[in-house]
Structure formats: structure tokens, C-alpha cells
Amino acid sequence: MSWDESLFHRQLTTRRFGREFVWMPELDSTNRWLFEHAAEFTMSGGVAATDHQTAGRGRYDRVWHDVPGSSLLFSVLLRYKTCSESAGFLAFLPAISLAGTLIAHCGDKCHISLKWPNDVLLNKRKAAGILGQTIVQGEDSLSVVGIGLNIAMRRRELPEEIRERATSVLDEAGKSLARESVLAEFLSRLENLYDRFMAHDWAGLRFQWERYAPERGTPMTRREGTEVFSGWYEGVGDGGQLLLRDETGIIREFWSGDIEQ
Questions:
Q1: CATH assignment of the domain containing 226
Q2: Residue 160: how many CB atoms within 10 A of its CB?
Q3: Using 50, 70 and 90 to split pLDDT, how confident is the model at 63?
Q4: Whole-angstrom Cα distance, residue 149 to residue 128?
Q5: I want to staple 70 with a disulfide (CB 3.0 to 4.6 A). Which of 79, 105, 152, 245 is the partner?
Q6: pTM of the model
Q7: What's the rounded Cα separation, in Å, for the pair 34 and 41?
């Protein structure tokens, strides 16, 4: 289905986010394009979106698969002052925003949850990829957050190696969604959370994350390279780090890694 830009702008209720908006039928990567054209955007919340990415990537350089017109593919530009807590909590913002958006549209049809740091799960399967990339220049940071939400691509169309752990809104909720409506609501939620981020409301952001997080005590395995650690989920820390309890009761902190739960 083609993109209806007039519908998107009619439903957009933000002050800043999405007001500077560029749509292109095809791109290699919305993240790459937005970084290269960042100077053309005058404020945080600029958006680049596309119908199809030819070289989309997720965390750990994993390939993002899409069929043209079946996914919501976009990146958002954010500018802010660098601080020690910012990186950990910045990763939460798009995931919380997307979880809230999906609950508003189809929460009665499927269970929506988050996996640290920013995986959005529908019925325990991954439906969205989020990749944040940041350039730090002294006290100033420039981040581009790329999001790919699989709305209407059927699981059978996915590569066989990810078919069991990936999904789409259509497969899980039994209905498709207008991409324009989803993006407009997502940006409204993201703008609100970004204002809290800029106010350093770390406690409030942590509370929002925990609304969609696993229950305390959920078994988890964290992998990074050859390092493997298994423990039990104990929430997130003051800087957004993952907290896992080991078998002796000691709480371990992790700032990166791939999580299985």
C-alpha cells in the first residue's frame, strides 16, 4: 500500500517530532541517510522514512528483512547534551513508545512486552528492530534512532532461520494497521518521553520501562562474544543497565549484550 502523507500529517499531534519529514520510496538505510543529511533538520524529531530498505541493519549488524509496503521503516534525529546516564536511557525511549502505540492499536489481540534494551515482542516474538547510533562531539550528542516494525509481512515470508522468533502485527493481532497512524502516534509518545529524557527524569523513564518488562525473577541469559552469563532478572539500574542476580544472590550489572529469555 502506498504511503499517504496527507493522512500522516492530519493525524500528527506533536509540537516538533515529525514536523520535519522526508519520505522516499526506497533507501539503503534511513539511519545512514539521516546522519548524512542531519544539517538539513533544524530541531530534534526530524524523520526520514521509506517503503523499502535495501541494506537495513539491526543490532550487531543483523540484516533487517522487509517486503516493500509491508513494514514501517523510519529513523528519528535527536540532539541533546551528553551525560553519563543518557546512553542507557536513550535506548529505552523508542521501545517504550512503540510498545504503548501497539497496545493502543492491538493490545486486546496480543501480549506486548519488552526485552532489554529495546526489543519489542508480540506474544514473545520479535516484531520490531531498533538501532540507535550516536556521534558525540564534546558536550553535544547527535543520535539517529532507526525503527523497523513488521506490520503486514507474514511469518512464512521471513527467512527460515528467524521464522520461529520473528513475527508481524498481522500474524499476531490478526489485523493490519495503517502505517501513517502508527507513526503519528509513535512520534507523539516519543516526543513526550524525549522531553522527560531532556529533563533527566531517569526514575520516570525506568518506571515506564518496567511496565512492559519481564517479571522479577525471570530467567535470562546474556551473551556477548564468547561470554555467557545466566541469571534472574532484577530490573534496570540508575543508568538503564540490566540487573541480573546470579546463583549466589549477587546482582550483576550489564551495559550491553544480547539477551535470551
A1: 2.30.30.100
A2: 7
A3: low
A4: 4
A5: 152
A6: 0.91
A7: 9
